[in-house]
C-alpha cells in the first residue's frame, strides 16, 4: 500500500554538541515550567514555533534514545546510592517531550511516540501516513539529545549530538515530487535521517509530496 503525504511545513535543528534555543524564554515565559523542561522538550517547542499550518491536532513523535540525559542522571544516582530526583524520574519516559507540548499548548488530541532504532524516522512517516488517511493534518516530530557526560566513549559515528525535525503533513492524491531517502548530511543520527532529508529539501519545491510505502 502506498500513501502520498504533502509536506505543508517543515523545520529542523542540528547541534554538533548542543542546540541554541534563543526563543525559549519567550515561548515558555513561566520560569518554573521552563526549568522543568528537558532539552528534548525545548527542542520540540522551538520546532513547533517554526512550522506553519498546525494549530493543534494529533502528533506523532519518534526518538531512538529518548530522554538520555535524565536516564543517565537516574543511573548515576543509583550507582552512587544517592536519592533519585523526582523531576528526572518524571522526565525519563519516551513521551516526555510531546507530553509537555500537550500541556503547554492545551492540545488534548492523540499523541503517539515511537522508538525503532535507526528506523525511527521512517516508521514515524509510515505511522503518519496511516493516521493521515482520515484527512487530518498531523505534526510529525523526531529528536535526539545525546550530549551527556562520557558520550565520546561510546559514540563513534554521530557528529550532531542534538537534533530535531518537524513536518506538518496531510494526505494527498497528487504524485510524489520528493524521493523518500536518508539525508546526505554525514554524522546525523540514522533515527532522524529520512525526516531530515524531507525537511532539508521540501522548502525548495513549490509542492513537496513524498510517497510512503506501508
Overview of this structure, please?
It is a single chain. The N and C termini lie close together (5 Å). The chain has a single domain, classed as Peroxisomal Thiolase, Chain A, domain 1, CATH 3.40.47.10. By secondary structure, the chain is an alpha/beta fold. The chain has a six-stranded mixed sheet with strand order 3-2-4-5-1-6, with helices on both faces. The mean pLDDT is 96. It is globular, with a radius of gyration of 17 Å.
Question: What is this structure, in a nutshell?
Answer:
The chain is 33% helix and 21% strand. The protein has helices spanning 24-27, 31-36, 39-50, 68-79, 86-91, 96-104, 120-131, 193-201, and strands at residues 2-15, 59-62, 111-114, 138-145, 162-172, 209-213. Strands 3-2-4-5-1-6 form a 6-stranded mixed sheet, with helices on both faces.
Shape: globular
For this structure, the CATH topology is Peroxisomal Thiolase, Chain A, domain 1
Number of strands: 6
Mean pLDDT: 96
Model regions low in confidence, pLDDT < 50 over at least 5 residues: none
Total discrete domains:
1
Give the number of helices: 8
The CATH architecture would be 3-Layer(aba) Sandwich
Could you name the key traits of this structure?
alpha/beta, 214 residues, six-stranded mixed beta sheet, Peroxisomal Thiolase, Chain A, domain 1, 6 strands
Give me the secondary-structure topology.
Layout: E1 2-15, H1 24-27, H2 31-36, H3 39-50, E2 59-62, H4 68-79, H5 86-91, H6 96-104, E3 111-114, H7 120-131, E4 138-145, E5 162-172, H8 193-201, E6 209-213
Parallel strand pairs: 2-3, 2-4
Antiparallel strand pairs: 1-5, 1-6, 4-5
